[in-house]
């Protein structure tokens, strides 16, 4: 063939697809695409076999008898799936088939740059890319069956190249990972099939035993060869991948591969992980949560038992309250909500101050949000300067995990605990699957030696969920919602029984909580605007109803809806919710608003709702003081002081309200007009409007 003909054929085979045409399908990438018989399809994230079937159907729709396509799984490993698409058509026919496929796949593809973090993971659109491969033959497809047959029958004439006994080391089947020395099929035919017709499942082929310490790539591909792919599949497992390259240029490390240090074992199980070494405690912790670990007594009980626990900052509204409740014990850690900057703003500096005062404080957890790398560096520098030993972050997504890894890489000399719970575990939670984000990021986490990784105690049996990646051990286990039923927890006995009675569901069904009661649990939207799991009581079901109606409206439309549905809302709150409607008059009469109540009725209603009479205590001391504020306002209205004379207050100290019944009775005997006078508009809409 002359040079001109060769160049002409090359030009015909390398024509570029029209960027404009590809853009119309929403699938194009920048630049041109050189056509070939093989197409690479790569999707981010773990894909179940059932999902693969849905991706195959568009190929069938756009492939006729002569333009049929074959699909073969090339690599199903950690965090992604790559598939090769084959077509034996060529030229315009091939181009038409692939562009048709692009159009079909557009319906299931997420738009570039779209944020799906607030969508349950199983309902998200796929994120993937497609490109032609630089090959001229459709390997690993049924199109080469005749080539495999010709090589074995005509070229080798049925002769064997080797026998099983001649293979000194294992050679693994690239489809199923079996040792071909144990197969009954002739080795030569098996090797031909591996090259020409059979798909490659590289994760199975490299499913090395647990004792493996090194994998060596002798191929010519270098960093872009099979060694890099193997390294990604084995990330986090502790297997060192050595890419020797052509002529062994990078093989110096191989000579030390046999000198693996081993330790003698005494036959006993000793749990030793970065988590336990950092804290000097067992690798089990109780994570911060409101209200359970707000209670100093419960936190002290966990510390006394020898475990790590986080003191919840979410239930502390000012520095004085937090300082007054520091639990007894050594190794105290505060869990502060980064999303609530008002709380975080006083808790973070106060925690450093308390450490400098000599309190046995060791850690600080930044929960509900991951700061930027620069802000995280400021936090870590401040903690280090105060003498605090470690910081923890609680990412809620893949991007959050990667941000924690970035923070750890920027601060390699400071321990950073990464806590992962996923969407199913916990009360406040993300929309994420528990497994897939870890599969996608485990290797990068393990590259940072200063990240102990802890998880919620959900099932981590990978094979049960179709995961083919190597085992990914964690350094610790965290308990949160489960601790609510502990004997030492301040949770009421009835609530503990309610939690234990919830039947629960399998891992594959928990997302049903977003729409309906599932396993005794409903997911509602918290005051922070985040999803939260709750036992499906009447009150929580009402919460879900409001989530789907008034809370789902723009804020400017809610007031009108509430006005229109006021009677229904009041009835439902009083019937089903833990916080009934405030409007009330003597005789247990429900009224629509506070201006239908007398000053005395407001005070009595506050005590009824905020004081636990059978335990002789206020729900919180701040509520006692709020009641005192209202009584002071009543005195201002009815004391009869005109500015020219003074009168001693009946309420000399708020502490007299610790047992309010007698005090309030005496108070309104002193000001009897307050028992009949309706609340003035100024007191309803003025500085004391927060009372109701």
Description:
The protein is α/β, with parallel strands linked by helices and 692 residues long. The protein has 23 helices and 18 strands. The strands form 5 sheets. An 8-stranded parallel β-barrel has the order 7-8-9-10-11-12-13-14, surrounded by 4 helices. Helix 20 runs antiparallel to helix 21. 30% of the residues are buried. The model is unreliable at 1-32, 46-53, 62-71, 73-82, 85-91 and 458-465 (pLDDT under 50).
CA-based shape:
elongated
Task: Report strand %.
Answer: 5-15%
Mean pLDDT: 77
SS field, number of helical segments = 23
Cα-based radius of gyration, to the nearest Å: 34 Å
Helix content: 25-40%
Give the N-terminus to C-terminus distance in angstroms: 93 Å
Largest sheet: 8 strands, parallel, barrel
Q: Unreliable segments (pLDDT under 50, ≥5 consecutive)?
A: 1-32, 46-53, 62-71, 73-82, 85-91, 458-465
Would you count the extended β strands for me? 18
* Spatial order of the strands forming the largest sheet: 7-8-9-10-11-12-13-14
Decide which structural class fits the backbone: alpha/beta
Gist?
The chain has 692 residues and is an alpha/beta fold. The protein contains 23 helices and 18 strands.
Topology:
Elements lengths: L2 H11 L5 H7 L12 E7 L4 H13 L7 E9 L2 E8 L3 H15 L22 E5 L12 H11 L31 H10 L5 H4 L8 E4 L8 H8 L6 E4 L30 H6 L4 E3 L9 H9 L3 E5 L6 H6 L7 E6 L3 H16 L4 E7 L5 H14 L3 E4 L4 H13 L5 E5 L14 H12 L6 E3 L20 E4 L13 H9 L19 E5 L5 E5 L2 H11 L6 H10 L1 H11 L22 H12 E2 L4 E2 L2 H18 L21 H11 L10 H5 L7
Parallel strand pairs: 5-6, 7-8, 7-14, 8-9, 9-10, 10-11, 11-12, 12-13, 13-14
Antiparallel strand pairs: 1-3, 1-4, 2-3, 15-16, 17-18
Helix pairs in contact: 5-6, 14-15, 20-21
